[in-house]
Amino acid sequence: MLRTLAALVLACGCGIALAQDTRVILLGTGTPNPEPDRMGPAVAVVSGKRVYLVDCGPGVVRRAVQAGIGTDQLTRLFVTHLHSDHTAGYPDVILTPPNDSRKAPLEVWGPPGLRAMTAHILAAWKEDFQIRLRGTQPHDAGGFVVSAHEIRPGGIYRDEAVRVTAIAVPHGAWKYAYAYRFEAKDKTIVISGDTTYSEALIAAAKGCDILVHEVYSQKGWERRTPEWRKYHAAYHTSAVDVGRVAAQVRPRKLVLYHLLPMGEAPEEVLSEIRQHWDGETIYGKDLEVIR
């Protein structure tokens, strides 16, 4: 009886959401600091069998494989901005998967400057490409192709599983930095990238199911030198302000990544957030899956 009911539910439109099982996998929750347990910033949004990478910090491909993602699925990448900790794994995403199982081209969306970065990577590994594509190594040439799309805020991508919107966010001296909103049939996910407190992000994220947001500890920040306090305040979001963001967005789950506790324990960061937000909050770990 239950199987029959499930089949009927899946046959109608209301069951598609249940079958899609859109989720977030944290591939990297770290920062520019080399923490052994935290790879560079990278998030996978998985919907059905489709994988959408957001950023590509160091270790991204091996973390993806650890998470059970096949290298043939690493064909869509969305870059929030061109800071090195978010892009140092870009050559890895270009070069590693086609040597394993990727046969389709890699499509990449991101801010102006992405095409130049891509061209320089391809030029830097020119000899590698020549040996692999013109030598005796078995290969599928399609997997080595990269197509970089420079975008502006607004709707940038759509397929059968998701619709993706780019949101301009403030990130210090960077002229272009984006958050991304993923709308699937079963849930909506917003990923902040690097940003300070952002009204635009709040407006775009209101009512989402999962908000993945960067954070630093206010208490830890207060111990830093004036130069570092000025820097972090212009580029990142304190835990107190993340709580203010969440209180307005009211996500079903708030997920913290790009973690800058500055010597404080996770409990301190969470207590700072709870000054304004008492909803479910997850202090992210690499390879954690959030539904």
Major sheet attributes: 7 strands, mixed
Poorly predicted runs: 1-18
What's the SSE pattern?
A: HHEEEHEHHEHHEEEEEHEHHHEHEE
Shape: globular
Helical percent range? Answer: 25-40%
Radius of gyration: 20 Å
- In the CATH hierarchy, the third-tier topology is known as Metallo-beta-lactamase, Chain A
Mean of pLDDT: 94
Proportion of residues in extended strands: 25-35%
Number of domains: 1
Task: Explain what the structure shows.
With 291 residues, this protein is an alpha/beta fold. It has a single domain, classed as Ribonuclease Z/Hydroxyacylglutathione hydrolase-like (Metallo-beta-lactamase, Chain A). The chain has 12 helices and 14 strands. The strands form 2 sheets. It has a 7-stranded mixed beta sheet. A 7-stranded mixed beta sheet has the order 7-8-9-10-11-12-13. Strand 3, helix 3 and strand 4 form a beta-alpha-beta unit. Helix 1 crosses helix 2.
Task: Please render the helix and strand layout as text.
Blueprint: H1 2-11, H2 13-20, E1 23-28, E2 42-47, E3 50-54, H3 60-66, E4 76-78, H4 84-87, H5 90-95, E5 106-110, H6 114-124, H7 126-134, E6 146-150, E7 154-158, E8 162-168, E9 178-184, E10 188-191, H8 199-205, E11 210-216, H9 218-222, H10 226-235, H11 239-249, E12 253-260, H12 266-273, E13 281-283, E14 289-290
Kindly summarize this structure in a few lines:
With 291 residues, the protein is an alpha/beta fold. Helices cover 33% and strands 25% of the residues.
